[in-house]
Amino acid sequence: MPTPTKGPRLGGSPTHERLMLNNLSAQLFQHKRITTTLTKAKRLRPVAERFITFGKKGDLAARRRVLRSITDKGIVHELFTVIAPAMAERPGGYTRIIKIGNRKGDNAPMAVIELVMEPVASKGAVAEATKVAEKAAEAPKAEAPKAEASDLPAGAHAPLESGEAPEGFEVKGNADSMKYHVPGSRWYSSTKAEIWFDSAESAKAAGYAPAGGEAAQKVSE
Fold first, then answer.
1. Within its chain, how far is the Cα of 121 from the centroid?
2. What value does the mean pLDDT of the chain take?
3. Structure letter (DSSP) for residue 91
4. Which pLDDT value is given to residue 81?
């Protein structure tokens, strides 16, 4: 008996394998998606996609060729009148395989194979979307408005452009974590101030908590 060229043979003979794949193709065209073993799904994909290629031709010779393998005229009619026209703009990849885990009992890997019926975006639509995305990326980003003095809590000051502390304001505040750092504390030098306070009391009044707790923010002079 000849050895199959693509993986282990399904069934006991080449004829049995061919009939099995034809029946699976008919079920796929009828239900649009079926659950089977991963091995059968991989072997079914090229067979089913070849039938769809015949369906896209649409002539009498192609219909007779498919009827030699799939004898159900209703399923062949569905292939030529519904499935093939829905995939007219698709250049290939008519099926999709999704792994769903192993089967209980023999632990065989299972998969769902389904027809890809979604409409294909035209080249013009793709090019237009690409141009819009490129223009959006090139457009200058609007700078976030700086906080006005009236929006700040009492005893607070907005950061200076130079990055230095405003005169009379030495307590650093972090708006994301709502923590404050007093001069000389553990993380003071490595923290970038998003807001400055004139004292720890002002920071507490604004809802900020001491970073690391009260003990971490008590620095002996």
1. 18
2. 83
3. -
4. 94
CB 94 within 8 A of CB 25: no
Q: What is the pTM of this model?
A: 0.54
Chain segment 130-189, per-residue pLDDT in tens = 777 787 777 665 554 444 555 777 888 888 877 777 888 888 888 778 888 888 887 788
Residue 209 — φ and ψ, nearest 5°? -110, 155
- Cβ–Cβ under 8 Å, residues 173 and 217: no
Judge contact between 159 and 194, C-beta under 8 A.
yes
Distance linking the first and last C-alpha atoms of the chain:
94
> In residues, how long is the chain?
221
Nearest alpha carbon to residue 116 among 149, 84, 139: 84
Residue 179 pairs in a beta bridge with: 174, 209
**CB neighbours of 100 closer than 8 A, spacing ≥ 6?**
35, 110, 111, 112
Share of the chain above pLDDT 90, in %: 42
Asked if residue 47 lies in contact with residue 6, where contact means CB atoms within 8 angstroms, the answer is no
Predicted local confidence at residue 29, as pLDDT: 95
Q: Which residues contact 179 (CB under 8 A, 6 or more apart)?
A: 173, 208, 209, 210, 211
User: What tokens appear for 104 in the block?
Assistant: 């209980």
Is residue 24 within 8 A of residue 42, CB to CB? The reply is no
- Least Cα distance to 166 among 158, 174, 154 occurs for 158
